[in-house]
Write a structure and sequence with these properties.
The protein has one domain (2-10, 36-89, 105-284): UDP-N-acetylmuramoyl-L-alanine:D-glutamate ligase. The chain is of the alpha/beta class and 294 residues long. The protein starts with a strand and ends in a 10-residue tail after the last helix. The protein has helices spanning 37-47, 62-73, 114-122, 135-138, 143-156, 167-173, 175-182, 192-199, 204-211, 251-263, 269-284; strands at residues 2-5, 9-16, 28-35, 52-59, 77-83, 90-95, 100-105, 129-133, 159-163, 187-191, 218-221, 227-231, 234-238.
């Protein structure tokens, strides 16, 4: 069993055709879909055949009901608390072939409840795994719940992975503070921008080596350039998989899911990285942050 703690939101995906022309019109394809780093990772884990539960918070609105229904249809168990009088979070994702920019209203995600999270994590068998999206830690309203998840996992003897989430908010809270929160975790995942915030400039290998003093294993995701793993078993690198890039939204979440599905099944670092790359390549070839249903 893998339990994922974090955000469940609505993504408004704006796939713009060419550069955005500020102060004028830019042609785009726009659609609404489920999003949130934790929810995306949970959906990809279910797609990979893993039993997974998502712990999150939504509003008592149509969006919240639809977001939970989508995940349940994808095979995710939802331990999601519904909060009245607050809207489900939403994110406008401006996406092109090269990168994406997110404009975020976290909504009910900020009300993630420490007691609810603690109870959900405590119910996971001792052989299970907690994957914590970094977003709850990066915002004051949800931070107690993120810290409660880590504490509950430690008491229950679960293995723990943390996704560093986003470079901007990481910079706001500070690298030393964030690393103190996640110190001792079994696995920290970060992309190149997040690694630079947490470890300073340098190669992925240099950054991972600096971070290895804080957590047991470090993975630095380099997009099309592949990924690097640093841990007690050594340093492993794999090249990225060639794939047509239609939309990078959710690729990092898919990578995390593929890696965790393999690693939690006993695969070694190199095989886990390759599994992450394979699912990430699947993600970028489609539009949106989740695997297609059916």
């Amino acid at each position: 069993m893998i339990i994922v703690v974090g955000d469940l939101v609505t993504d408004v995906l704006v796939e713009h055709h060419g550069p955005i022309r500020a102060g004028s019109d830019t042609d785009a394809a726009i659609r609404v879909a489920g999003g949130g780093q934790a929810a995306n990772t949970a959906a990809w884990l279910a797609h990979a055949g893993r039993a997974v539960t998502l712990v999150a918070a939504v509003g008592a609105d149509r969006a919240g009901r639809e977001r939970m229904a989508e995940l349940e249809a994808a095979g995710v168990s939802c331990a999601v608390r519904v909060h009245p009088d607050v809207a489900t979070g939403s994110v406008v994702v401006l996406t092109g072939a090269a990168e994406r920019t997110m404009i975020t209203d976290r909504g009910a995600s900020l009300l993630l409840d420490p007691e609810h999270v603690t109870a959900a994590v405590a119910a996971v068998p001792a052989c299970g795994h907690l994957h914590l999206s970094g977003y709850p830690l990066l915002h004051g309203g949800s931070r107690p719940a993120g810290l409660a998840a880590l504490a509950a996992a430690a008491r229950a003897g679960l293995t723990v992975s943390v996704d560093a989430a986003s470079a901007g908010p990481l910079r706001d809270v500070g690298a030393d503070v964030f690393l103190a929160w996640v110190r001792g975790s079994d696995l920290l995942l970060c992309n190149s921008d997040e690694a630079e915030v947490l470890a300073g400039p340098g190669s992925a290998a240099e950054q991972a080596e600096r971070l290895a003093g804080q957590v047991r294993n470090v993975v630095v995701k380099r997009g099309a350039g592949g990924a690097l793993w640093h841990g007690p078993e050594g340093v492993f690198t794999v090249a990225g998989e060639a794939a047509p890039v239609k939309d990078p939204t959710g690729a990092g979440d898919a990578f995390a899911a593929g890696l965790l599905a393999a690693w939690c099944s006993g695969a070694g670092p190199e095989a886990s990285l390759r599994a992450g790359n394979a699912l990430g390549a699947t993600a970028v070839a489609g539009v949106g942050a989740r695997p297609a249903l059916g």
